[in-house]
């Protein structure tokens, strides 16, 4: 594929006063990410700048970038570098930044395989990666892309892969949880920005489980080696490995072994209500056709946008429609099994504009990591031109007891200033609403009414269009926000 140029040719270099530091970029003192308008920039110190130039001139790196496996990157003129930095790079902007705990099993596995593929290409050329974190990867729709160009460094003979521990904790261990124990890894990664520790994994893999593929080497042996070397310096460990004959060839064989292991890992989640929701949700063919026409007209009237959020996307029916009218679509669904199926289907279709994510909208991704800003919250990353909230409001307001004003306020705030909201209200007498209300005390939701919902929408903007579906128990609205 052709990678878009990181920035328009001839764009003036940003001044120091234009630069805004990325809160999540501070752990490697050799380089730092900044933003300046639409530009994503990386400042390098003297050592990192030398490493970058060697990398850019290598035989293995430019083909990876040309194939889209590494984000598009260019070096700006020397005078563009900020004070106290030796060089400045401009990167391709990723359409929507996501976090590994928002990915499905297949997404995490594909990200892990790309990381290993890049490392396998780098080692014979005399390079390695200093980090092995899942956060070094992002997505262009269903295509993973490695973004941490500053992670590449020359490889010293006999030196182990410095990123191995991070790779295990943020990529391999979560995959082992899913493949071997049937557990959803997302809560584990969301709880700890540095991933799952070997001693935590060891407690889960005792008895016969300790012999499952990947566990003896990457959990138990890794944990023992980590404890044994806890008081030794990195230099001493490297010297011991060199004395033992550890070589580039052994490192490459180890990476190939991990690739083989990761490819074999599979996760078949149990069936859930949401997997077959489109068939069981009660829409007639007339309702479905009318709804698709309304959504298409709403997206067309808004003009081509940069980003559409499809909240409660399920099988991606409306995400695909939105992809015809926007540069990028983020399809959010709470069930990991549904998201995994959607990801695999989109990947098979070659659809590259839709990014499916796992997220419970009643408990969306908060800010995390250092000071709560190292990993930005979902709300902070949103800012969509159009927010689709179809067959969602009743699940939040009735199913999760979120007050209706809160639901509408949340949906509106996920849009960019001047954006649009396309939302569906399921009336209290609808079969699905009655099913949800059947498990609630009588009279608990007196304000869950169509007139109250419309008043909330009017307070947030201008209702430009509405449509009652043929069944008579659901209404769609197109709202221009901020009016």
The radius of gyration is: 25 Å
Structural class comes to: alpha/beta
Given the C-alpha coordinates, what overall shape results?
globular
- Strand percent estimate: 15-25%
**What is the CATH superfamily of the largest domain?**
Vaccinia Virus protein VP39
Helicity range of the residues?
Answer: 25-40%
Number of domains: 3
Task: Find the count of extended strands (DSSP E, 2+ residues).
Answer: 16
Concise overview:
This protein has 18 helices and 16 strands.
Please describe what this structure looks like:
The chain has helices spanning 46-56, 61-66, 105-122, 164-181, 186-191, 198-204, 215-228, 234-243, 248-264, 277-280, 285-302, 317-323, 336-349, 378-381, 393-399, 404-413, 431-437, 450-460, and strands at residues 20-21, 31-36, 39-44, 73-75, 87-91, 127-129, 137-140, 143-146, 152-154, 305-311, 326-333, 354-358, 384-389, 415-426, 461-468, 474-481. The protein has 483 residues and is α/β, with parallel strands linked by helices. The protein has three domains: 17-91; 100-264; 273-481, Rossmann fold. Strands 12-11-10-13-14-16-15 form a seven-stranded mixed beta sheet, sandwiched between helices. Strands 1-2-3-5-4 form a five-stranded antiparallel beta sheet. Strands 6-9 form a two-stranded antiparallel sheet. A hairpin with a 2-residue loop joins strand 2 (31-36) and strand 3 (39-44). The longest helix has 18 residues, at 105-122. It is globular and about 75 Å long. The two termini are 41 Å apart.
